[in-house]
Amino acid sequence: MVNRPNVCLIVMDTARAQSALPTENPGVMPNLESFAYEGSTFTNAITTAPWTLPSHASIFTGQYTSDHRTNAGSLSFDPEVVPLAARLSEDGYETAAISNNTWISPEFGFDTGFNHFQRGWKLTSEGVELTDIVRNNDTRTGQLRAILSNLTLTDFPATVVNALYNRFYHKKYDYGAKLTNYRTKEFVSKTRDEPHPFFLFLNYLEPHLEYDPPKSYRYEHKPKGASATDLDSVNQEQWEYICGNVSMDDADFRALEALYEGELSYLDYRLGNLFEWMEEEGVLDETMIIIVGDHGENIGNHRLMDHQYCLYDTLLRVPLIIRYPDSVPEDTTVQKLVEARDIYPTVLDACGLNAPEKDEVSSHSLLECSPKNPSTTEGRDYAFAEYLVPQPDIEQLKNRAGSAERADHLDSLDRSLRCIRTEDWKLIKASDGRMELYDLESDPEESEDVKDTHPEVVSELSEVLNSEFGLVKKWDREQFNEMSGSTRSQLEDLGYI
Q1: With CB atoms 3.0 to 4.6 Å apart as the test, which of 173, 315, 374, 406 could cross-link to 244 if both were Cys?
Q2: Burial 71-97 (b: 16+ CB within 10 A, else e)
Q3: pLDDT digits (tens, 9 = 90+) for 447-482
Q4: How many domains does the chain have?
Q5: For the chain, what is the radius of gyration of the CA atoms?
Q6: Tell me, what CATH number does 356's domain have?
Q7: Is residue 39 in some structural domain?
Q8: Would you say residue 265 lies in a domain?
Q9: Dihedral over Cα of 490, 491, 493, 494: its sign
């Protein structure tokens, strides 16, 4: 073993616990199941926010959204706390990131502390964005003139290569997993400075809408009685469904979930390939590997698709598995409550560093939560999550709504949310004054609001939630006017705007 471990933090973007955890959905991710036997699985890991931007910011800082303030109302990641990569870089780690989600990119500040940052939608980090150059020109002649006047000979080759890659190859086979594995192998075996330990962050986008697994995985989880056509023709326009323009029944959502699980199975294949290679290279046991979902997904749950507008466990409970033979016991399941932001102090702890002594930063190292006897593990009494600004903006959706009745439903989603969760209960409070209480022990799917029959639980949890964050108030939104055209296009493809 090395004195200071390498660290590989893998985010399975949009992977929810109920679908991705081998303990709950065996057979979908068999390589992850084998991997879990070699480490600790946390079955009650709660993310701090239901979508990518704020949840990643929490993982990188150990903070809640209210503290790092990175959300749809403030798109820049510029925390007061030194982010994880920067902290490790200061201590001699070589840091690298490979991101396939546009939110997690230099444009929004997420390259802070990384010596190397690669974007999955670019074949090379050089060159400029053609979309930004031609955005104000409607004619081909005008676009060509803009390109010739703005591109230097130095920029030209990389710019053209990136444009061709984005147009003809990116997302044609997968959402970047194959290329991410290749780039990871290049970094570990060739690029990095060998004497230094490394911190590697990987964001895999495969489970994200649109669910389009490669052919060999597309029908692997086809429901009994369904046809290939049922899967190929099912609606995947989440906002059209939420706006009431598309009707979907249980069979549609079973087909959609089958495609989602196909994406997970394909990602599992790529992860298995990566772990096998790391073992062959002799770096697997010298590396702490953390696999986590940044948030989950609604696939018809609660009359929603995608991962916005709510704080139900379909979005908040995520897979979390840690493998590091030196410090993490193998074949261990931890059922106690933990938070995804606990990854921040966990990595620092493993690397011999202390988390900042600030109340708003987690000091809850998960290394202390996985002893040989998990029944004695000390977890959290409470987990919290926030959804501060709706994304996309509700007014955008109302313009698409198919009926006035559905527009009224969309109005009900236009609010800020906070929740407090114990192992048995969840209380959700909204900025419009509404509250929901769920008995998770008897109703894990959160289908029956029981606030009226358990006022004492509402009072207790509400007091703790208000003490932690104050009253829930509606947050303001900034416009997307500082976003480049290429980034806007990428986020539109992902369904965010």
Answers
A1: 406
A2: bbbbbebebebbbbbbbbbeeebbbbb
A3: 999 999 999 999 999 999 999 999 998 887 665 446
A4: 1
A5: 22
A6: 3.40.720.10
A7: yes
A8: yes
A9: positive
